[in-house]
Amino acid sequence: MNLHLQNKVAILAAATDGLGFATAQQLLAEGAKVAICGRDEQRNRVAAEHLAATYPADHILVQACDVTNRQQVDAFVQAAHTKFGQVDIVITNAGGPPAGTFETLDASAYEKGFQLNLMSAVSLIHAALPFLKQSDAASILTITSRSAKSPIPNLFISNVIRPAVIGLTKSLSQELGEYGIRVNSILPGWTKTERTVYLLQKRAEKLGVSYEACEADVIKSLPLKRMGEPTEFANVATFLVSPAASYMTGVMLLVDGGDYPGF
Ligand code: NAD
Questions:
Q1: CATH assignment of 9-189+229-255, given 3.40.50.300, 3.40.630.30, 3.40.50.720, 3.30.70.260?
Q2: Relative to the CA of 228, which ligand 1 atom is closest?
Q3: Using one digit for the tens of pLDDT, what is the confidence trace for 245-255?
Q4: Measured in angstroms, how far is the CA atom of residue 107 from the centroid of ligand 1?
Q5: pTM (2 decimals)?
Q6: Cβ of 206 less than 6 Å from ligand 1
Q7: Closest by Cα among 27, 10, 20 to 238
């Protein structure tokens, strides 16, 4: 299938590692140009070198940007538009909020989660919207979590904030459809990245078991009896933002190996 992504321009937030980085690589492989950002200079450099080893340098922009900093987000979007001359695809992303329960997390954790996972998406979409309106293949994807469907134990802030991002996604799909802008979300389940290592460590500490035992327990609970690979997320994300998915909008798509038990 031709995804028709040649020379389309994608902006991906927080994408020097993990799910975002895998998606950037997949988009580049399909001929798109990508702008990615991260907070850490060293990680940004490694990501830039990694991408430039395989894909044309004039298809890649890696910029320092904290997605919770509105000015830096504006500057990132402007830099992408200046380098590539257009913006067709925006993928919102950030690190996950801290693990914990209602009793272990204080009020400041909610404020941080709100800024990190909801307002970062609002800022990025705000900054990119004038450019997206000029595209004939505009698409926004929010990366959220399976926790938006049903609460995950010990991930209280995610369980509270992710549904707000789903509300943002669905509302935008209804408001922006008239401009031809599609807006969807992917709700990943357990997928092997640094985030899952952190979550398994926290869960093991809480349960008083080893990391390995905790990991085995999670895997046993999953219908496919394994965690996902970042490329498996990236394949779906790349299709969903591409013109090949031109009649899909307002969709909240689980990529969780069947973890969510509902219909
Ligand atoms: P990750 O932790 O491996 O990578 C997140 C990236 O975001 C890193 O590059 C990190 O440096 C960057 N980042 C964090 N805060 C930032 C900030 N303020 N500004 C700029 N960059 C920032 O996470 P991942 O596994 O790739 O997951 C991506 C998102 O999907 C996260 O929100 C995560 O919680 C969510 N998610 C992941 C899984 C999973 O199993 N991997 C499951 C459900 C939801």
A1: 3.40.50.720
A2: 40
A3: 999 999 999 99
A4: 22
A5: 0.98
A6: no
A7: 27
